[in-house]
């Protein structure tokens, strides 16, 4: 920054432009374009490199604009050919944007393969001269073809469309000349602009549509991505393009891509198959976000007839448990996926160790003795560690001592020598190895050093010949460090592809927060039905089919980490349960009803449909419901005072009992308190001549004096009150105190006594329920999976 010296402090001389800005202005860029280029690190680096390759200190504006386009649009997979394209521009063999666009398209397809100049020049019109006379003639022809529209629309005619029609006939013609000739001819045809031509067009008032008979419209055909969400991913043989550009603080750029020989070796090993991996860390139970990862990882491999590893990322022996490993393997199978192989990062500890030695020998890693606090401070200040430039032999010896447990925990780490001055903190000499005197659940007590995620993840991807390394968007900033290590060690590079993380309202998805809920007993274990762990969802009665349907419905997007409303998940759960759950009658809060005109001891066994569309003559689709003198309805289905919007039972009012008869309330028996209703007395209409509007669910005594089947029912609401509790500092304070209600004395029809774990039902008018694992021979327990109400489905799935 320039400062004033002497005189008025408010009048400082304007700062001189930087050398880079001067070089951008020297090739003819306008001030604003040059400054915008300078504000973008990537554009700055590319444009500086292009100017250097061109070897010019100044040039005509038309050439400079083409060079700027090369800097901003050049395909990264064909960088080897960029000097050739620049020479074509400088020699004016390529002299307009149409030719340059064609050249860039050709080179993007070609990639790093050898350039056939004849085909290249033919593709981008090198040597083709379009005379001004040819442009004039073609413009005249196009205007004649559009004369009717020109006369009608006058100067409101779409000039861009007319230019496009000319360009179809002369793709290499000068675009500026074409536009100028069209505008000149329009003036000749139409004469000077009139007042009406200059007036703003009047907006037509929207007329109220007249009511017409409803016509069903045909929906637009689904897109390729909707039909096949995996169509967005490239094929393995296309993995030669530049994955990412790694920018260093000294201006150096690494362009990470596979060489032809490395890619050919990879394809030979895999047979050209897609190879993916699902790499959970075994430090907790999987949640619905992992279901999305499985859908993408396993789904892509299955769709392309490839393979997907289940790889346990077990680099932290202190957090991993066999319980979690067993759970993950079991839940992956439950979700419908079959791993190609089950592997562990620890399977590759020896390979990783040898690669670390190679990295040290290349001068790209060093043993460091800074504490975690010092590392953090030095990163913030962009300062090198005092041990960064220690001799290679010294680091090799110290690393060997680390390996054999000769250095205490916390006294040394192996760090990658990346770029401490980089703006991306994930390039600030990340830790590759740390010392831990903890036996490993899978590898035993062989190792005293363990690799970090940042070091191991990309290398194991490469060692397993993974074609598509798929992860959530928060890992996007780790791309440079991922590819830095693979480039540094000359390893095969998978194609990294990030997708948006799954966040669902009124829940937390962080393993740390889930662990806190379980450990501090805010919930009843990892499989608590209120959690969005896969174990919790399964216990609640949600199937893997519904979960996968929900995820497929969202697609594989990279858009953002937007919050998905939990109602969207419930929609897919409800859609499936509506098809598969048999209907039964259950009363949660029973109110006794005595049918006074039915003889004591009389039992009428009625047929009730398990599904609404069950054929009347299919006995297997029906169950028996006893109708007797004593039955029970919901307490909320009776009121002493009736109203127009109430369809339940009231004194003197009739209702229909589901699958049975109409009943009419004739008497109400109250307790000591007039509001305390003990019993309702009613008469039934065996002829069913009465046609009341209200239909109630009910349960009757199966035989005189015998209580109906008693079951426990657990009702669940949203676990958190706020839509996004993860944003709250006191997120535990947002827990919903009414998220779980246990109903001990619910009554059910006799057929429900045969229910077993895994069975799912629709309790009519109440919701969908599943048998819980707490059920015993002495008593059944049911979890409400989802209510019948579907506010989300009214608008349809989005």
Automatic annotation (TrEMBL):
Its EC number is 6.1.1.18. One of its GO terms (molecular function) is ATP binding. InterPro entries: aa-tRNA-synth_I_CS, Gln-tRNA-synth, Gln-tRNA-synth_Ib_RNA-bd_2, Gln-tRNA-synth_Ib_RNA-bd_N, Gln-tRNA-synth_Ib_RNA-bd_N_1, Gln-tRNA-synth_Ib_RNA-bd_N_2, Gln/Glu-tRNA_Ligase, Glu/Gln-tRNA-synth. Residues 21-174, 178-252 form the Glutaminyl-tRNA synthetase class Ib non-specific RNA-binding domain. Residues 581-685 form the Glutamyl/glutaminyl-tRNA synthetase class Ib anti-codon binding domain. One of its GO terms (cellular component) is cytosol. The keyword Cell inner membrane does not apply. It catalyses: tRNA(Gln) + L-glutamine + ATP = L-glutaminyl-tRNA(Gln) + AMP + diphosphate. It is an enzyme of class 6 (ligase). The keyword Transit peptide does not apply. PANTHER family: GLUTAMINE--TRNA LIGASE, GLUTAMINE-TRNA LIGASE. Belongs to the class-I aminoacyl-tRNA synthetase family. This is glutamine--tRNA ligase.
């Amino acid at each position: 920054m320039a400062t004033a010296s002497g005189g008025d402090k408010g009048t400082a001389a304007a700062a001189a432009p930087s050398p880079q800005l001067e070089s951008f202005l020297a090739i003819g860029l306008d001030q604003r374009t040059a400054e915008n280029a300078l504000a973008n690190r990537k554009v700055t680096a590319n444009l500086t490199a292009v100017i250097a390759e061109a070897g010019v200190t100044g040039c005509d504006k038309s050439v400079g604009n083409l060079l700027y386009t090369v800097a901003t649009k050049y395909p990264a997979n064909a960088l080897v050919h960029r000097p050739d394209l620049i020479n074509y521009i400088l020699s004016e063999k390529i002299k307009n944007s149409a030719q340059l666009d064609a050249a860039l398209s050709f080179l993007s397809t070609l990639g790093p393969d050898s350039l056939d100049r004849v085909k290249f020049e033919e593709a981008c019109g090198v040597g083709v001269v379009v005379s001004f006379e040819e442009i004039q003639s073609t413009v005249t022809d196009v205007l004649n073809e559009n004369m009717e529209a020109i006369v009608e629309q006058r100067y409101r005619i779409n000039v861009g469309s007319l230019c496009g029609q000319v360009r179809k006939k002369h793709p290499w013609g000068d675009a500026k000349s074409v536009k100028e000739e069209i505008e000149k001819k329009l003036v000749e045809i139409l004469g000077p602009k009139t007042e009406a031509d200059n007036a703003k067009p009047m907006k037509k008032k929207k007329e109220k549509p007249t009511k017409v008979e409803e016509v069903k419209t045909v929906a637009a055909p689904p897109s390729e991505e909707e039909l096949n969400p995996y169509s967005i991913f490239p094929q393995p043989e296309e993995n030669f393009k530049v994955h990412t550009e790694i920018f260093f603080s000294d201006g150096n750029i690494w362009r990470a891509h596979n060489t032809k020989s490395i890619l050919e070796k990879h394809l030979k090993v895999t047979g050209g198959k897609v190879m993916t991996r699902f790499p959970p860390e075994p430090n907790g139970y999987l949640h619905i976000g992992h279901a999305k990862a499985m859908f993408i990882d396993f789904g892509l491999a299955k769709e392309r007839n490839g393979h997907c590893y289940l790889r346990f990322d077990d680099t932290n022996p202190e957090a991993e448990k066999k319980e979690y490993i067993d759970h993950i393997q079991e839940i992956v199978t439950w979700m419908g996926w079959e791993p190609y192989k089950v592997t562990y990062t620890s399977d590759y500890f020896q390979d990783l160790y040898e690669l670390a030695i190679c990295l040290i020998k290349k001068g790209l890693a060093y043993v460091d003795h800074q504490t975690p606090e010092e590392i953090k401070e030095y990163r913030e200040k962009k300062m090198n560690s005092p041990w960064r430039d220690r001799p290679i032999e010294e680091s090799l010896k110290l690393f060997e001592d680390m390996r054999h447990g000769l250095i205490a925990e916390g006294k040394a780490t192996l760090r990658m020598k990346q770029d401490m001055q980089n703006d991306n903190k994930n390039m600030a000499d990340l830790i590759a190895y740390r010392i831990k005197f903890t036996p490993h659940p899978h590898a035993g007590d062989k190792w005293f050093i363990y690799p970090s995620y940042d070091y191991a993840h990309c290398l194991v991807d490469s060692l397993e010949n993974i074609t598509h390394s798929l992860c959530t968007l928060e890992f996007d900033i780790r791309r440079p460090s991922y590819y830095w290590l693979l480039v540094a060690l000359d390893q095969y590079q998978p194609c990294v592809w990030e997708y948006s993380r799954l966040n669902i309202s009124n829940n937390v998805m962080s393993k740390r927060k889930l662990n806190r809920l379980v450990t501090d007993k805010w919930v009843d274990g990892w499989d608590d039905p209120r959690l969005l762990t896969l174990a919790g969802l399964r216990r609640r009665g949600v199937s893997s089919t519904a979960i996968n349907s929900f995820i497929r419905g969202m697609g594989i997007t990279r858009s953002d980490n937007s919050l998905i409303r939990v109602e969207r998940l419930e929609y897919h759960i409800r859609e499936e349960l509506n098809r598969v759950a048999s209907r039964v009658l259950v009363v949660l809060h029973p109110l006794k009803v005595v049918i006074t005109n039915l003889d004591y001891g009389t039992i009428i066994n009625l047929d009730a449909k398990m599904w609404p569309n069950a054929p009347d003559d299919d006995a297997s689709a029906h169950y028996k419901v006893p109708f007797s003198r004593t039955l029970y309805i919901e307490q909320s289905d009776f009121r002493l005072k009736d109203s127009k919007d109430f369809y339940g039972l009231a004194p003197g009012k009739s209702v229909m009992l589901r699958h049975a008869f109409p009943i009419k309330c004739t008497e109400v028996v109250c307790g000591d308190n007039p509001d305390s209703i003990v019993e309702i007395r009613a008469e039934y209409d065996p002829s069913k001549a009465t046609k009341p509007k209200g239909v109630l669910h009910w349960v009757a005594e199966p035989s005189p004096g015998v209580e109906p089947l008693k079951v426990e029912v657990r009702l669940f609401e949203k676990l958190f009150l706020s839509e996004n509790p993860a944003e709250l500092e006191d997120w535990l304070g947002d827990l919903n105190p009414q998220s779980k209600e246990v109903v001990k004395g619910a009554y059910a029809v006799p057929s429900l006594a045969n229910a077993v774990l895994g069975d799912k039902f629709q309790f009519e008018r109440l919701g969908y329920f599943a048998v819980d694992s707490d059920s015993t021979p002495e008593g059944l327990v049911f979890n409400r999976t989802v209510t019948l109400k579907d506010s989300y489905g009214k608008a349809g799935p989005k």
